[in-house]
Structures are given as C-alpha cells and as structure tokens.
Amino acid sequence: MLALIKQGSMVKGIINLFVFFSLFSLYPTDGFDPLDVNANVTIQWDIMEMNPGTYSADITIYNYQLYRHIEWPPGWSLSWEWQENEVIWNMQGAEAKEQGVCNKTLGTPPPHCCLKNPVIIDLQPGTPLTKQAANCCKGGVLTSMTQDPTKYISHFQMTVGHASTDHAANMKMPKNFKFGSPGYTCGHAEKVHPPTKFPEDGGRRWRQALRTFRVTCMYSQFKAWPAPTCCVSLSAFYSETITFCPNCSCGCQQQPGSSCLKNGQIPPVIKRPTTDPDYVPPPLAKCTSHMCPIHVHWHIKQSYKGYWRVKITIMNLNVRKNYTAWNLAVEHPNLANLTQVFSFNYMPLARDRPTNDTGLFWGMQYYNDVLLQSGQTGNVQTEMLFMKVPGVFTFDAGWAFPKRVYFNGENCVMPLPVDFPRLPKEKWNVGK
Ligand SMILES: *[C@@H]1O[C@H](CO)[C@@H](O)[C@H](O)[C@H]1NC(C)=O
Ligand SMILES: *[C@@H]1O[C@H](CO)[C@@H](O)[C@H](O)[C@H]1NC(C)=O
Ligand SMILES: *[C@@H]1O[C@H](CO)[C@@H](O)[C@H](O)[C@H]1NC(C)=O
Ligand SMILES: *[C@@H]1O[C@H](CO)[C@@H](O)[C@H](O)[C@H]1NC(C)=O
Ligand SMILES: *[C@@H]1O[C@H](CO)[C@@H](O)[C@H](O)[C@H]1NC(C)=O
Ligand SMILES: *[C@@H]1O[C@H](CO)[C@@H](O)[C@H](O)[C@H]1NC(C)=O
Q1: From the alpha carbon of 353, which atom of ligand 6 is closest?
Q2: CA of 216 to the centre of ligand 1 (A)
Q3: Best mutation site among 85, 101, 103 for ligand 2, i.e. most ligand atoms within 8 A of its Cβ?
Q4: Alpha-carbon span 124 to 139, nearest angstrom
Q5: Given CA atoms 295, 292, 407, 419 in this order, what sign does their dihedral have?
Q6: Domains of the chain
Q7: What is the pTM for the complete model shown?
Q8: What is the three-class DSSP state of 26?
Q9: Strands 294-303 and 230-236: what pairing?
Q10: Mutate to test the pocket of ligand 1, among 38, 146, 185 (most ligand atoms within 8 A of CB)
Q11: How far apart are CA 308 and CA 327, in angstroms?
C-alpha cells in the first residue's frame, strides 16, 4: 500500500518535470508574439548636420509594442560599438553612463563620452531645460502604445566627433546595437530612404535629415527570463473544482538554486548599493506550488439570460516589486461582445487581427494602476459582463475560459484543458 502511494507520487513528480520542461519548449524563441505580430522597438538614427570633424545625430526610440512597456527602475538603456575612434562631444536629452578615459589631445572640456561601447540612459524628469531634448527625460520609461500613446517615444541628440580623421563625411554607422531591458535583440542599422522629415512652423515647412538609419529590436520572453513568470488558475460557479496553476509553472520549490519566502517569514534585507540609484533587487516570491510571482485567477461568476459574468483577480506574490502601469492581455472569443468592464480600463487589440478576440486590461490611474507588492494589498480585481451570442456561447468544453493570458507581455502558464472545471453532466444546458 505504502509502496503504491510512493510510486504514485513519483509518477506525479515525473509528470511535473515533464510539464515543466514541455512548457519551455512551447516558448517561441524568435520573439514572435501571436497577439502582437508586428511588435518591435525601433531606433531611428537621423543625421541632421555634418561639419568638418563632427556631425549631429537625433536618436529616437519608438516602442512599437501594444502592451509591453519598459519601467523605471532601471528604465531603458541603449548601447552600440563605434567603428572608428568616435567620441560623443555633447548630449541633450540623455547621458552616457560612463565618460571613460578621454585622450588629452582632445582638449578641455573633454568630450561627454570617449568609450568604444557607450551605454546611454535617459535623464530623470525635472532635468534642467538646458539639458533636455523633445520627448526626453522620463527616467527611461517607455509605455506601450495602447496604455499611453503619448509616452512610447524617447529622444535624444548628440554631437559626434572623430578622434583621428577630420571629415564627418567618412562617418560609419556604429554596430552591435543593444537595447537594454532584458530579452531584446537588435538587428543591424539599415539605411532608410528617403530620410525622415521633421515638421517646422506648425507643419508649414518640413526639415529633412541628411541621412536616416533604423535598427529594429525584438523581444523574446525566452531570452529575458529562464522560466515563465506568471500562471493562471480557473474556477466556475457551476463546478466544485478549482483548477490551480499547474505545479512548477515557474519553477519548483525543491529545485536547487530556487528561493522563495515561506509563510510568516520576513524577507531578508538586501543591501542596496549606494552607487546605483537604478538598482532593481532580485525578485523574491512567496513559496507556492507554482512559484510564480504573478498569479491570475479567472472565475466564471454568474450566468444571466443574455449575459454572463467573469471575475478576474491578479495577485502579486513578489515581495520586492510594485508593478506600476501593469497590464493584462487576454484572448477570448467572446471579447468581441464584451459589454461592461468594472474598475479596469479596457481596449480591444484589433491591430493586425481579423477579429476582436483579444483585448488589454489595465488599472485606473490613482485607483488600481499600481499592483502593490505582496504583503501590502498585493492584488487587483475586476468583473466584466459578456453578451451571449446565440449559437456561439457555451459553458461546454471550457469555452468560457481564456485561450491566452499575458501579464505585462509575459505569457502566463495555463492549466491543461483536461483539468478545466467542467459542467456537471446533468446540467449540460445551463445558462443557454
Ligand atoms: C516595427 O513596428 C512598426 C509599427 O508597428 C511597423 O511599421 C514595422 O514594420 C515594424 N518593423 C518590423 C521590422 O517588424
Ligand atoms: C591620443 O591622440 C593622438 C592624436 O590622435 C594619438 O597619437 C595618441 O596615440 C592618442 N593617445 C591615446 C592614449 O590613445
Ligand atoms: C501539486 O503540488 C501539491 C502540493 O505541493 C500537491 O499536493 C499536488 O498533488 C500536486 N499536483 C499534482 C498534479 O502533482
Ligand atoms: C511599494 O509601494 C509601497 C507603498 O507605496 C511602498 O511602501 C514599498 O516600499 C514599495 N516597494 C518597492 C519595492 O518599491
Ligand atoms: C458580437 O460581436 C461580433 C463582432 O464584433 C458582431 O458581429 C456580433 O453582431 C456581436 N453579437 C451580438 C449579439 O452583439
Ligand atoms: C473591434 O471593436 C472595436 C471597438 O469595439 C471596433 O471599432 C472595431 O471595428 C472592431 N473590429 C472588428 C474587426 O470587429
């Protein structure tokens, strides 16, 4: 008998391991996101002026993603490798993290940055106007296009000089661009023709760059994190079953190297390095069977004659992070007929998709736009009302549960359909 139980739990363990690894293999490695097929971050490099020995460039970063955003701390960073001995004489709207050692022959004051691989970061809000450029100084925050269409662009200007030759016309575009926020990979700089036009005089005149280059960077969750960071659990008014997040969705407690906070334990104090104001402490989640810092619960709450109601709860189990401007992307066929959403903002993600089966939820400003760390509130919730479309709507076969869920652009691990709560057999027609 005992042996039988032991064997049973070993089989379960093996199944868990299998689920854990097969989840990884489901990950797209090329950065393709089925809910946002054109998602990319574009770096536009406009050469505005060329002088003997120097040129000036306007760099604009566009976050062309529907729901993935870049937060502070630490905010975005951008780096590249100069092909000649270039130096950055001057910068507006951003700064190089390190100046590096400048050649004495360059005179005083020395250039802003003399490194072969400069790392550029945004300035903080409230920077003196003399150091600013248009669309700058947001602490490296880039919102998604959906959540705040006014803040998904960042821009800075710089004067680049050549330390050896004195003709800017020889300029070579730098290579090895890196967009810093975990998970991004950038391509080569490509020349764009015609160069960018900039409006002047209220759009009456158009100024044009001398040359324009573009670098495209793509996100891949697989490259950003070693494991998923979010999972989904399910329940319904018509079933006793609660389908929990799959065990080991984001890691296993017994796994070597995994750490988590046991109930009642106080999070260890981390020494914040005084030298880095943008330091982000490593995540620490409460110990659970799924080990995810974010847990989303979808509950089918009620069925009315022509409508049905869902309650969504998002729980933050990370004791070291408040998620500011969080968002939740959901794919469900009934979203085309979403009638009402309580206490969250909502927008359909219709771009490049033939149907309205995907939408984005996010918090209301000053009310629930910050998902506080575990231990303080630690959750946000909403209810929503869907219209039943005759001939399509059903509680059968898990249709009423979401097909995909993303938290802040990270794909959440879903339970397997065979584990979904089911209708009691004798009530197949409930709610129809
Ligand atoms: C990047 O996104 C923009 C805006 O959606 C799109 O026009 C462009 O084609 C995308 N670039 C790539 C290489 O996917
Ligand atoms: C400094 O610049 C001069 C003139 O271009 C060059 O000869 C010298 O090697 C440079 N020194 C260093 C340390 O790079
Ligand atoms: C998941 O883990 C819990 C507790 O760690 C355990 O009781 C349960 O049997 C596990 N479920 C599966 C399907 O292995
Ligand atoms: C999260 O916000 C709360 C309340 O504003 C604050 O007390 C806490 O220190 C914040 N946590 C982090 C990691 O910033
Ligand atoms: C549901 O949405 C679809 C797509 O927008 C629309 O064609 C259909 O008429 C809607 N059904 C109802 C009952 O409103
Ligand atoms: C999706 O919904 C929006 C607003 O509800 C509507 O403007 C748009 O036409 C819909 N698109 C499709 C493809 O049904």
Answers
A1: 13
A2: 8
A3: 103
A4: 4
A5: negative
A6: 40-222 (2.60.40.290), 226-263+282-419 (2.60.40.290)
A7: 0.88
A8: helix
A9: parallel
A10: 38
A11: 23
> Number of helices (H) and strands (E), helices first, in the chain?
2, 25
Q: How far is Cα 145 from Cα 152, in angstroms, rounded to an integer?
A: 6
For residue 222, what are its two tokens? 């697989």
> 359 and 338 in contact (C-beta within 8 Å)?
yes
Q: Is 394 in the pocket of ligand 5 (CB under 6 A)?
A: no
| Tens digits of pLDDT across the chain (432 residues) | 333 334 444 444 444 444 444 444 444 445 688 899 999 999 999 999 988 888 999 999 999 999 999 999 899 999 999 998 899 999 999 999 999 999 999 989 999 999 999 999 999 999 999 999 999 999 999 999 999 888 999 999 999 997 665 555 667 899 999 999 899 999 999 999 999 999 999 999 999 999 999 999 999 999 998 899 999 999 999 999 999 999 999 999 988 777 899 988 888 888 777 778 888 888 899 999 999 999 999 999 999 999 999 999 999 999 999 999 999 999 999 999 999 999 999 999 977 777 889 999 999 999 999 999 887 778 999 999 999 999 999 999 899 999 999 999 999 999 999 999 998 864 444 443
Q: How far is the CA of 330 from the centre of ligand 6 (A)?
A: 16
Q: Is the CB of 321 under 6 A from ligand 4?
A: yes
What is the DSSP code string of 42-73?
A: EEEEEEEEEEBTEEEEEEEEEEE-SS--B-TT
Q: Which of 7, 157, 170 is nearest to 85 (CA)?
A: 170
For ligand 2, the distance from its centroid to the CA atom of residue 163, given in whole angstroms, is: 8
Backbone phi, psi, residue 32, to 5°: -75, 130
Residue 27 CA, ligand 6 centroid: distance in Å:
29
Find out whether the beta carbon of 336 lies less than 6 Å from any atom of ligand 5. Answer: yes
Nearest residue (by CA) to ligand 6, atom 1, is: 356
The residue count for the chain: 432
